[in-house]
Amino acid sequence: MINITFPDGAVRQYEPGVTALDIAKSISEGLARKVLAANVNGQVVDATRPILTDSTLQLLTWVDKDGKATMWHSSAHLMAEALEALYPGVKLGYGPSIENGFYYDVDLGDRTISEEDLRKIEAKMVELSKLNSEYIRKDVSKADALAYFTEKGDQYKVETINELADGSISFYTQGGFTDLCRGPHIPNTGFIKSIKLTSIAGAYWRGNEKNKMLTRIYGITFPNQKELDEYLTLIEEAKKRDHRKLGKELELFAFSEKVGLGLPMWLPKGAMLRERLQRFLQEAQIASGYLPVVTPHIGNKNLYVTSGHYEKYGKDSFQPIHTPEEGEEFMLKPMNCPHHCELYKVTPKSYKDLPVRFAEFGTVYRYEQHGELHGLTRVRGFTQDDAHLFCRPDQVKAEFQKVIDLVMYVFNSLSFTDFTAQISLRDKEDRSKYIGSEENWELAEQAIIESAAEKGLNTVVEYGEAAFYGPKLDFMVKDALGRKWQLGTIQVDYNLPERFELEYIGADNQRHRPVMIHRAPFGSLERFIAVLIEHCAGKFPLWLAPTQVKILPISDKSQEYAEKVAELLKNAEIRAEIDDRSEKIGKKIREAELAKIPYMLVLGEKEAADNVVAVRRQSKGDMGTMQIDAFTALINEEVANRKPLE
Questions:
Q1: Annotated binding site: which residue ranges?
Q2: Which residues contact 605 (CB under 8 A, 6 or more apart)?
């Protein structure tokens, strides 16, 4: 008999060769009908895989992240089966699960797929799912795998197999469809009840622009129609909140192909929004002992060779700029940290000088592939709210925790209250992509783990997500629609101080290396503003709103009084605009609502005679009349308290 240990610590004995599905049935038939996969000894596997030795077991259902991922990957295979039935000769690339659903990259030859065709593919998937076909795994030799897909004429699978080691290759078959896949998969297609293919895009094979452009079909599936309907409602709301749509409507930012793809330009209202966010953080930084610095937009190539950025990212960056001086090369700045290391070296430091905290809203440039650019969330030029702290080893934890406090201050002020702190560590196996000693990495990782625990953060650990020079604490924020975004980040770095030979004189009068902490509470202003726009649907908190008050005179007779009110608001540092068009007041109110203006002041002859304003609150309607002084006090109190979104 073998011992199976469950998540609650309970242990049961079973015959060797028992499957997770068998175990679920031994507990209850109802549970067995929900099991999609299993976590055995920390590895997600098919629920039908035999378990031969003592093991830990977690049964995975739809409520588990890995359960959803398994069903969505199986749905990608189901879609591929439907495509082969509808488009004979279609060739298949990759078909993974993603955060919400799945996709498959396919080569249709001369054929194309339209939105209308997606409904036909959905219908075929529903037809195939009802067959309850089992997903059957088979380990195959490399020779047999190559023979199968060569005969089938699927060159993408052949190319993939050629890179795999013999003995590590498996096929999965459901119904009449077989695919190269490591798994895992759900027990059968019957678990896939409700299907929606969501969009079509182009994708280069293996993400390389030199390769053929394939058709990428996105989809999502659910175990029941109710959850699919709720998801589709969420998608419609997301379309309304799309920062690209709202950014245009609210006149915040624009793009121009002549300027360059992925290079946003900020219109006056957007620029003012950026500046207010910068001032907000700058005030908090100054109070926390940060020192402002400014560095150039370019740097000598050797700077990034020293830091290691050129080796790791040089091929994916904008290429070096050649000057008239032979052999001299500069690069658009991909990171601020190498510049800050050089600033640290300008003056000698003693242990009494540390920590040194340099802060800069520095614009950096990275060459993102054309197909990966997306509004403000994926751009080629962006401004980081960057700071680098240089401290003694005994100061690392305290400084790290102070940065956590700063991130919390930013999130709370902007109503980002639902988040997880992701502890991003090195890959457990592959250390080749990291620089620095094992000892320094262990010290850095331990500092992050302990700091997060002592601050009581809700954390998850992700291996392989560290930066090449150090581990990170990444803040994964959920917006109002429940979508996850990676925003703020804090990193501990023992390596760049070594590469730049940074030093301080210790109390023992000897030379020592400082430790470097990288931090960016916003991450980048562009991405942060995009997420903020979608989180609040363009209804910014009053202290951030580009226009706080719209003054709406009912007729030309109220124009003079409107201008007087505007001047009084301006003197009280309230951002106000007058809508002096010859339109009906109802239309002015509707358009101010659509423009997400927090407050509206309706001014007629009566208000002018009484020296008052009729106040409307965005989305809430009439607040009655009040004296101008009372209204300005109301606004300034709300701004001073940085009242969060309601």
A1: 337, 388, 518
A2: 554, 555, 557, 558
Whether the predicted model's global pTM rises above the 0.85 cut: no
Nearest Cα to 544, choosing from 352, 413, 424?
413
The closest of 164, 188, 2, 163 to 77, measured between CA atoms, is 188
Instruction: For residues 496 and 503, give the distance between their C-alpha atoms in angstroms, rounded to a whole number.
Output: 12
Alpha-helix runs per DSSP H in 166-318: 225-241, 243-249, 268-287, 301-307, 309-313
pLDDT tens by residue, 382-426: 999 999 999 999 999 999 999 999 999 998 888 888 899 999 999
Any domain includes 247: no
CA separation for the pair 492, 290 (Å, rounded): 17
Check whether residue 302 and residue 181 sit in a common domain. Answer: no
What is d(CA 542, CA 273) in angstroms, rounded to the nearest whole number?
11
- Give dist(CA 548, CA 577) in Å, integer: 8
Q: Is residue 646 part of a domain?
A: no
- 518 flagged as catalytic: yes
Is 337 annotated as catalytic?
yes
Q: Let me know if 110 is a catalytic residue.
A: no
472 is catalytic: yes
Residues belonging to the binding site for Zn(2+) are 337, 388, 518
Cis peptide before 514 (omega within 30 of 0): no
Same domain for 515 and 580: no
578, 553 in Cβ contact below 8 A? yes
Q: Please state the φ and ψ torsions of residue 5, each to the nearest 5 degrees.
A: -100, 125
How many domains is the chain partitioned into structurally? 4
User: Quick check: is 402 in a domain?
Assistant: yes
Residue 411 is assigned to a structural domain of this protein: yes
Candidates 58, 174, 285, 384; catalytic one: 384
Residue 211's CATH number? 3.30.980.10
Identify the domain boundary among 22, 43, 61. 61
Identify the active-site residue in 137, 357, 380, 388: 388
- Nearest of 516, 519, 511 to residue 497 by alpha carbon: 516
Whether 366 sits among the annotated catalytic residues: the reply is yes
> 144-167, pLDDT tens digit by residue?
999 999 999 999 999 999 999 988
Mark whether 229 and 268 lie in a shared domain: no
Segments forming the whole domain that contains residue 30 = 2-61
Q: What is the bridge-based pairing of β-strands 419-425 and 356-365?
A: unpaired
196, 216, 241, 518: which one is catalytic? Answer: 518
Q: Catalytic pick from 91, 124, 337, 385?
A: 337
